[in-house]
Amino acid sequence: MIILKEMLQIIRMLISLVISVCECLFKTIIPTRKKDLHGKTVLITGGGGCLGKELAISFAKCGARIILWDSDKELNEQSASLVTALNLEAYAYTCDCSNETEVKEAANIIQQEIGQIDIIINNAAIMHARNIIDLKESDIRRSFDVNVLSYFWVIKAFLPSMMEQNEGHIVTISSSAGLNGTAYLTDYSATKFAVVGLHESLALELRELGFDDIQMTCVCPNFVNTGLAWYPKTNVPWLIPILKSEEVAEEIVDAVRENQEMLILPKRLGKILSTKRLFPLRSQLAVYDYLGVGVEPHIRRRKKKGSVFKSN
Which class does domain 34-301 fall in? Predict the structure, then answer.
């Protein structure tokens, strides 16, 4: 009887595998209908940054109402003004998302003044790009506060209302450094691995609790020309380029509208990373050296005349 039960479970699993593969092939051949974002309210953390700004514009062009959170009041309001200049709707709120109390207070204000948040884009991030010896304790703690804990506080603030409606969408902005370790990014990479784990665990948790209509999307782009990484690099720009923030934003909006679970950019990078663990370490290092994808340390470089500058 026990053997029969085990066999039935295996057969059920194999049927599910076949169905999921067929669904994936079907979606590849016949694109799924994109969901309408008109009237939806989108919260974007890190709204004052380059990617936050582009996400705000791209979602607003789809008819969404934009809420921007950032600790930098001036940059955040600049992002909102770019949206309103297009006669679209955007609101800027100053909030340090790494501070749980500030997140709770800002969330209460939004729910009173604007209402339900339909889509969360957890996008806030910082990067130090130093070798581990030069990283201060405060640097490491700040990386985890902004890049990881802020994601928890924002989700905890708005997920209960999504659960009440059994509707919503949570987008986790991670990085290719959250799938593959990168030199000089020990703290950053660790935080990005952490939010991939947060994303996958929460997706399974919602599934087990029966909230099937709360969608989850994890985004893992290669380095983007936002200025977060001062000196991003690649040996193969034709294969794995440094990405443009406006193109990444458009891809993220499409992924949300198609309810994609995972978005790796460029998409060919996903195929490379998916086969990584199949090879021994020496082979992996050979590929790593050939691709040359990563960052140079964040040190201030000098012009010939001796003036100090930072490259963005």
Answer: alpha beta
